[in-house]
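Case study 2.
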Amino acid sequence: MLQKLAFMAAVCLLAACNRAPAQTAATETVTLSVAEGAASAPLDGRLLLIFADNGDTEPRFQVRAGANGAQVFGMNVDDMKAGTAVSFEPGFGYPLRTLQAMPAGDYVVQAVLHKYDTFKLETGHTVKLPMDQGEGQQWNRSPGNIYSTPKTVHIDPAKGGALSLVLDQVIPPIEAPADSKYVRHIRLKSELLSKFWGRDMYLGAHVLLPEGFDEHPDAHYPLAVFHGHFPADFGGFRETPPDPDLVCEPSERFGEPCYNRIVQQEAYDFYKAWTGPDLPRMIIIEIQHATPYYDDSYAVNSANMGPYGDAITRELIPYIEAQFRGIGAGWSRFLYGGSTGGWEAAAVQIFYPDDYNGAFIACPDPMDFRAYELVNIYEHKNAYYDMGTFNKVARPAHRDWLGRIAYTVRDENHMELALGDRSRSGGQWDIWEAVFSPMGPDGYPTRIWDKESGTINPDVAAYWREHYDLRHIMERDWATLGPKLAGKLHIYVGDMDNYYLNDAVYLTEDFLKSTTNPHYDGVVDYGDRAEHCWNGDHENGNHISRLRYNSMYVKQMVARMEATAPAGADLTSWRY
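Prediction:
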């Protein structure tokens, strides 16, 4: 009997037992409506229905990949009118695929409408995408998005029932930060981007001015560009000591019981150093370049998002230098950043080699797509699984410094697919796709892989390789790029980066160390057991070093300027 059962189990495994059972029609009906007065015109967008197993925070703030995130279902809506109920028929759900698969129980439920605008692109395509509203493309915080008040409900799909929610809350506008003596705020209409998107598009920046800026009107300053995710204001700069009545907020990641106090103290320490005698006088900027796909553009030109690279380097930066007496020459400009900002610092230096004099590249997003996290897009057939003849193993997407897995590539991609189809989730994999892929016939990015199954498209992978694989581009073009990049690339990553980003750095290092005529003459350095986002500090833990980006590379920038500035260059007016 046992042999018979074992044989049947084997047959089941080889045949159909790994397939999801056929879904019966959902017996739980859901209707959603936008309250009268919450919208003045019919709305397009992504309608999201979210179930949480607790009310610690609103369900819209509990959606995340992994074991403990909320359940989210999504569907597109067009011309949704206030006061008219919509039958919610989800196109995709995460972690559970369908509403029918929900286990019976009590849940806190909430609905959100993530609004889309219509763009008539320069290419002739018409697309519907979320316009950033000053929040950095965060669907659960975007001003103008409409949501329902959370409520507790009992769900039992097997028995059936009816759920009705009214979206009656509108996320309010964000107040722009005020200028101060040291921090100024710039908003510039980009002619290049406006032409591509078919409407007025703007770039912004937070500008940190040096001590003595007003007292030295004849001084002209070097410029450092701090790349990264959308900044609400200039980060890490605080003119007052930590709040004496601060309520401590612990950091689970760093094991610090009052991490918010550490953050405030580090920001105040940087202010004291910035206004003191030891740091050189220069301008630092953080750029706001949120796109309809993500909280920033990756600072390069893209088929799907337009010429953000040219707009930043050719429009925004010269404008800031003219406004605030920047030197305005390539030898006096530097790039730095971590994670997304690390990739941007590298890419901008590589794509605009004469316009910048060095990039300090921390924990960069994949620089070599043979290690696109753990996916080799050129050789693997499937992004979600390592596929064998008899088995498949899910690819991790996140680990801690001990190697413990939090979630997989499939988890993140399926969550994104629930939040938005056609690369519209605002998530990490979707923005890589929006930046790196060619535009499809429908005007949206061409998928690098099937979002549901993970099957990789080799034609798209080949396009990525020639346009955005930074290691490949450097190797392909080193004869002309090498002389312009020598001494400019400084790469730092922890060898236990949470997102496996060190793997692509290893591959990039292999090439850089092999270079001749000229040798790359830069830095590749690793933090022992360090997680994301190690940036070259061997003396302090991540919890401290991640707060010191603005000061840790400055002296190297000055040394580089002194060694490479052309004859007659201004190396003195800003040295007071």
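Residues 259-275 form the longest helix (17 residues).
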